[in-house]
Design brief:
- The structure holds 2 protein chains of 2 kinds.
- Chain A is an all-alpha fold.
- Chain A has a single domain (about 50-280), classed as MetI-like (MetI-like fold), CATH 1.10.3720.
- Chain A is about 75% helix and about 0% strand.
- Chain A has helices spanning about 1-10, 15-20, 20-45, 45-50, 80-115, 115-130, 135-145, 155-185, 185-195, 200-210, 215-235, 250-260, 265-290, 305-310.
- The longest helix of chain A has about 35 residues, at about 80-115.
- In chain B, about 35% of the residues lie in helices and about 25% in strands.
- In chain B, strands 6-7-8-3-9-10 form a 6-stranded mixed β-sheet, with helices on both faces.
- In chain B, helix 4 (about 120-130) crosses helix 5, helix 9 crosses helix 21 (about 550-565) and helix 14 (about 400-410) packs parallel to helix 16.
- The longest helix of chain B is centred in the middle third of the chain and has 18 residues, at about 205-220.
- The chains are: A mainly alpha, B alpha/beta.
- The interface of A and B includes residues 193 and 209 of A.
Chain lengths: ~300, ~575
């Protein structure tokens, strides 16, 4: 029981929540709440949404009513359902994108940092080159190359996810590579070399766990960036087709002309969904970042200070 | 504020420069409140050198920082720290700024980080002058420069007129510490707090800095609070000693009295643990080199190791034409100051550095043709104990997993056999077998170093390389680890290369001692002979500058050392 509790205490987020105080705790709690809301919406979309994501109605641009809670769009989609289903699409894209980029980024970073030499130099140049591209442009090119005009839900999600992956791999790669190079000079790695451990064993057993401590942090910050990239792709028309799945960026794009006609409900709801999701993930990531750094972390202070001054 | 100054002791004795009364300091941490200083009171008279000694965690540095009001925000202090009539604890930041530099200043441990690398030393010395406006008026640029030159002259920097415009990197470590002292002296404060002022310096440089501090006291009557863990330094410099343990003052006495007849058990234990050159020598009574009939495990012939220089600059030769042998069962002690190449030699034998010239033969393997793949099978016969026990364990693995690492790699033992073997190993280094489940950060420094020894010995190696294994440890812990090392070595009979900067430590363990200076092996011989009758000039200087923990004996040694320097 004792060990179990300490294990729970060591999990990211929970351990940070325990350490936090004051404003930092407020930010963290807000972040957790918004992120949970997003995750629950994504998971329970089939139960919450009254209609399917691609279901069309005859009433177009209908204002909010009891039949269509948040009204309908020019294309005849139910805004409420589209927004709810959109959370699911966003979630899938984030998971696929971040999982792929962490996997590749970590392996490349470990190998490149530990082995070094020409391999390292080539990979660094490639990563720098990718960095030099505007991310959205790169994502667009990748999206065109991968989807090649097909538009069902999964290929849409994968093309969006892989486009984002390409942008993110260098980030993970760089962080892990820098950590690996630092750890390579640590005595515990040298002691593993002296003991006669193979390079693969050293990377897997000694460097991997120590180098990946900052990942949950980059993960949350990148997740919010992934949503923005996805929405950007959708807005520009390179995302997922409306007939395949609901996607906030696409809906925003088509709400553009509505806004001037006074039809506010088609744009506001997907827009707010994007803002809240990104805000939640950013708050979570930023406050975890602050709490992980003892210099930025506020500490619990008893009323001691006052007593001492008085005495 | 001035209420504190009207102490009744005012008439007879001169008013103390520093008066600490019932000082308490606590820190807020994630684990709650930690009391670093529990109840500390002592005084420092004008012109007196008071040493605060204690092991790590005794609260000596926190006490020193309190004297300058340098505690972090998470600290809470109570009691009184009165410097020249001002109470530091209740002073506001403005008052503190006025006191610092004028009444009390500080000399830090690491001179290379205490100086700003992008400013000239003259600027840094003058900074304090400009901040303070002595005599109520601003110090002009020219005047500040003149004062900086004077301060540099005071601390014995040659050609202060020229050197005032130099940058910190143009000075050696010892000179940098002189500059830091010059900056501390610029406003002629009555009190200097020196926090481990010689710990980062080599022994020969340490002797010079100690000489300088003593000279400053004699000439300018500056009081010095010296924070140190080195009993030799205390014996050399201090008039009075305050011994601290876990935040409390254990004993306070004059230096001679403390060393001659320590009253408290803790002080006695502390003093007994300090290695003393010439006592407890491993080679006592030896007349010729032992183990010469045994197999030679390491043979270096004109060994050269170079580190490539940056583009355009020549390579740095860390090891220069060094020849020696280590036979089976023998403990070879390698002594040298920082940069002498001692660690490089140890690492080269373990295959962590490549040789660039000459020959280095380790267990029959010529390191000139080093290939990781072909050397790997030999690694099971070489153990390595690193300097910093905290860093040489993977923080994510338990102690048991770390110790088991060599067993997993080189043997086919089953899981339970490995667990048993680990328990045995831990017991052989006097650690409970249950510690196998703990993580490195849950052990103390000494315990970690024992575990490190257990890992080094897991495969019963023929050769153990120990690179400064005790230099990160407190003296009392060091004494225990050295004792353990000695016991295990005589029991298992492995050969060892013992690397250290501390002559006294090497003498305790090694029968045969080599002295390295700037990459060259200037002298080697039987431990006792090298220590008592050194042949080489550098060895003589090194041995003479090592302070011994005995004030009377140290005063004699100091005279010898000065004669040696004068003769040069």
């Amino acid at each position: 029981m004792e060990t179990k509790r300490s294990l729970l205490g060591r999990l990211p987020i929970i351990s940070q929540l325990r350490k936090s105080v004051g404003l930092q705790r407020g930010m963290l709690v807000a972040g957790i709440a918004l992120t949970l809301l997003f995750l629950l919406t994504a998971a329970l979309a089939p139960l919450i949404a009254p209609y399917g994501a691609t279901q069309r109605f005859d009433e177009t641009q209908a204002p909010p009513s009891s039949v269509h809670l948040w009204g309908t769009t020019a294309g005849g989609y139910d805004v409420f359902s589209r927004t709810i289903w959109g959370a699911q699409t966003a979630f899938l894209v984030i998971v696929v994108a971040v999982a792929l980029s962490i996997f590749l980024g970590v392996i490349l970073g470990l190998v490149s940092g530990y082995i070094g030499g020409w391999l390292d130099r080539v990979l660094v140049v490639v990563a720098d080159a990718i960095y030099a591209f505007p991310t959205l442009l790169l994502a667009m090119v990748m999206s065109i190359a991968i989807s090649q005009g097909r538009s069902d839900m999964w290929s849409g999600i994968f093309s969006a996810a892989i486009s984002i992956t390409v942008v993110f791999i260098p980030q993970y790669y760089r962080v892990i590579r820098a950590e690996t190079i630092r750890l390579k000079a640590e005595p515990f790695v040298e002691s593993a070399i002296v003991v006669g451990a193979s390079s693969v064993r050293i990377m897997a057993r000694h460097i991997y766990k120590n180098a990946t401590r900052t990942l949950p942090l980059i993960f949350t910050l990148n997740a919010s960036e992934a949503i923005l990239t996805l929405a950007g792709l959708g807005f520009l028309g390179f995302g997922i087709e409306p007939s395949a799945a609901a996607e906030w960026g696409y809906d925003l794009n088509h709400a553009q002309s509505d806004a001037t006609a006074g039809i506010w409900w088609t744009g506001v709801f997907p827009g707010v969904a994007i803002v809240l999701t990104v805000l939640g993930l950013t708050l979570l990531g930023e406050s975890m970042n602050d709490l992980n750094d003892p210099r930025l972390r506020g500490r619990k202070q008893a009323k001691k200070k006052k007593e001492l001054v008085d005495a | 504020m001035s209420a504190h100054t009207s102490s009744p002791a005012g008439e007879a004795a001169p008013r103390p420069v520093l008066d600490i009364a019932a000082l308490r300091v606590s820190f807020d941490t994630d684990q709650g409140e930690v009391r670093a200083v529990k109840d500390v009171s002592f005084e420092v008279a004008p012109g007196e050198i008071v040493a605060i000694v204690g092991e790590s965690g005794s609260g000596k540095t926190v006490t020193a920082k309190t004297i300058l009001g340098l505690l972090p925000e998470t600290a809470h202090s109570s009691g009184a720290v009165i410097v020249s009539g001002n109470d530091i604890i209740t002073a506001n930041p403005r008052q503190l700024r006025a006191i610092r530099g004028r009444d009390v200043s500080m000399v830090f441990q690491e001179p290379s980080t205490a100086l700003n690398p992008v400013r000239t030393v003259g600027w840094q010395i003058a900074e304090g002058l400009r901040a303070h406006r002595p005599q109520g008026k601003r110090v002009g640029r020219r005047e500040a420069r003149a004062l900086a030159i004077e301060a540099l002259g005071k601390v014995g920097i040659p050609e202060p007129h020229k050197r005032v415009d130099y940058y910190p990197h143009q000075f050696s470590g010892g000179q940098k510490q002189r500059v830091v002292i010059a900056a501390a002296l610029a406003l002629n404060p009555g009190l200097i707090v020196a926090d481990e002022p010689t710990t980062a310096l080599d022994v020969t440089v340490q002797a010079e800095i100690l000489e300088l501090l003593r000279d400053l006291r004699d000439r300018y009557g500056t009081s010095i609070v010296l924070i140190t863990h080195n009993m030799g330094v205390v014996a050399d410099l201090a008039d009075r000693v305050v011994v601290m343990f876990e935040g409390d003052v254990v004993e306070e006495a004059g230096a001679e009295k403390l060393f001659a007849e320590p009253r408290e058990a803790y002080t006695q234990k502390l003093l007994a643990a300090v290695p003393h050159l010439g006592r407890n020598s491993a080679s006592a009574g030896f007349t010729e080199r032992a183990f010469q009939d045994k197999e030679v495990l390491v043979r270096a012939t004109d060994l050269e190791i170079e580190y490539p220089g940056r583009l355009g600059s020549p390579a740095f030769r860390a090891v220069d034409k060094v020849s020696f042998t280590i036979s089976a069962g023998e403990v070879f002690g390698l002594v040298g100051e920082s940069g002498s190449g001692k660690t490089t030699i140890g690492r080269a034998i373990a295959g962590l550095n490549r040789t660039t010239g000459g020959s280095l033969n380790v267990l029959g393997y010529e390191m000139r043709d080093y290939k990781e793949r072909s050397f790997r099978p030999l690694r099971k016969d070489i153990g390595f104990v690193f300097q910093d026990p905290a860093a040489s364990f993977n923080p994510h693995l338990s102690i048991g997993e770390c110790v088991a690492e060599p067993l997993y790699i080189h043997t086919d033992l089953s899981g339970s056999a490995v667990t048993n073997k680990v328990a045995q190993l831990l017991e052989s280094v006097q650690l409970p077998a249950a510690y196998a489940k703990r993580f490195p950060h849950e052990l103390s420094g000494g315990q970690r170093q024992r575990a490190s020894l257990a890992r080094g010995l897991a495969l019963k190696p023929k050769l153990l390389i120990a690179d400064e294994p005790t230099s990160a440890l407190d003296v009392s812990v060091q004494a225990k680890v050295l004792e353990l090392f000695r016991e295990i070595q005589s029991e298992l009979g492995f050969a060892a290369l013992f690397i250290s900067h501390d002559l006294a430590v090497v003498d305790i363990l090694a029968e045969w001692v080599g002295v390295l200076y700037k990459g060259r092996l200037v002298e080697q011989g039987i431990g006792t002979q090298v220590m008592s009758n050194p042949q080489d000039d550098y060895t003589k200087r090194l041995i003479a500058s090592l302070p011994v923990p005995n004030p009377a004996e140290q005063a004699k040694r100091r005279a010898v050392h000065q004669a040696l320097l004068a003769a040069k």
